[in-house]
């Protein structure tokens, strides 16, 4: 079994008392929290209780702003991949799924990934929310503004690792309506 990061959307954030009423599946990614997941939870980032595990190791963020950031970066990356049919299909599939599953918040479930290091999962999520995600957002914003060409070239050269996650209405952990 692969350890995965899971991304969902909902119209409310999970809290200690209950899960959101309707949780929509967005994406899962094996062995990592990819750049796309970090950017999608990069606006209004807050740590929330997990919907799957006991520690508070979920991350919620604004859906519309995170989706806009990812779309803008995909546009910048795509300026060097106009002839790459696989990239074009990945972008089309991703953006269509994000439009279909839209809600107020993204919710990133990190438990399987942060537990791989053997470190304290809560501390790992704190670092993710306070350093890794903001750093990824800053790099992406600079690239979109045309000020981070080397980083953009590195993302373009390995776009599958950053953007080609499994987008679906049913993930390994799905929630009934």
Describe the structure.
The model has no long low-confidence stretch (mean pLDDT 93). The protein is globular and about 50 Å long. The longest helix is centred in the last third of the chain and has 24 residues, at 121-144. The protein has a six-stranded antiparallel sheet. The protein is α+β, with helices and mostly antiparallel strands. Helices cover 45% and strands 17% of the residues. The protein has helices at 35-40, 63-78, 85-100, 111-114, 121-144, 149-157, 159-163, and strands at 4-10, 23-30, 46-48, 58-62, 105-109, 166-167.
Write the layout of secondary structure elements.
Elements: E1 4-10, E2 23-30, H1 35-40, E3 46-48, E4 58-62, H2 63-78, H3 85-100, E5 105-109, H4 111-114, H5 121-144, H6 149-157, H7 159-163, E6 166-167
Antiparallel strand pairs: 1-2, 1-5, 2-6, 3-4, 4-5
Helix pairs in contact: 2-3, 2-5
What is the residue-averaged pLDDT? 93
Q: What is the approximate shape?
A: globular
- What Rg is obtained from the alpha carbons, in whole angstroms? 15 Å
Strand order within the widest beta sheet: 3-4-5-1-2-6
The string of secondary-structure elements, in order, is: EEHEEHHEHHHHE
Q: What is the tally of beta strands? A: 6
Amount of helix:
40-55%
Measured by DSSP, the beta-strand proportion falls in 15-25%
Number of helices: 7
Main pleated sheet: 6 strands, antiparallel
Which structural class is indicated by helix and strand composition? alpha+beta
Uncertain regions: pLDDT < 50 for 5+ in a row?
Answer: none
Kindly, what is the distance between the CA atoms of the first and last residues, rounded to a whole number of angstroms?
A: 26 Å
What multimeric state do the chains show?
A: single chain
